[in-house]
Design brief:
It comes from Streptomyces dysideae. Pfam families: Y1_Tnp. This is Transposase IS200-like domain-containing protein. The protein contains four helices and three strands. It is α+β, with helices and mostly antiparallel strands and about 120 residues long. The protein has one domain: Transposase IS200-like (Alpha-Beta Plaits, 2-Layer Sandwich). It has a three-stranded antiparallel sheet with strand order 1-3-2, with helices on both faces. A hairpin with a 3-residue loop joins β2 and β3. The radius of gyration is 14 Å and the shape is globular. The chain starts with a strand and ends in a 6-residue tail after the last helix.
């Protein structure tokens, strides 16, 4: 999955990405899903998630984006407000793709190679 910040604003810092990963791991655990890989850049994050078939992807995505938005805004409020306004953190869209044909090692390597903000 790929989530992009609203207006593609470069809001993420290294500390924010670390906290975002923690939050998303907690949300995945609530859905009996596993966040297998996470990384991001200034304006987006990549997630490799293994989730059971009983979980509706749209509900998982809504929870991941909703919980992370709320917590990141609360915990990094002065910084986030400089980049984002109007109560939105994430863009309304997202990318969700199946990687059933690709080896997981290739997908994990791609996610790990994303450049973290300095």
């Amino acid at each position: 999955m790929v989530f992009v910040t609203k207006y593609r604003r470069g809001v993420f810092t290294e500390a924010m990405l670390d906290r975002c990963e923690e939050i998303m791991r907690e949300v995945c655990a609530d859905f009996e899903a596993e966040l297998r890989e996470f990384n991001g850049e200034h304006d987006h994050v990549h997630l490799l998630v293994h989730y059971p078939p009983k979980v509706a992807l749209s509900k998982l995505v809504n929870s991941l984006k909703g919980v992370s938005s709320r917590r990141l805004r609360q915990e990094f409020e002065p910084h986030v407000r400089r980049y984002l306004w109007g109560g939105r953190f994430w863009s309304g869209s997202y990318l969700a793709a199946s990687c059933g044909g690709a080896p997981l090692t290739v997908v994990k390597q791609y996610i790990r190679q994303q450049q973290r903000p300095t």
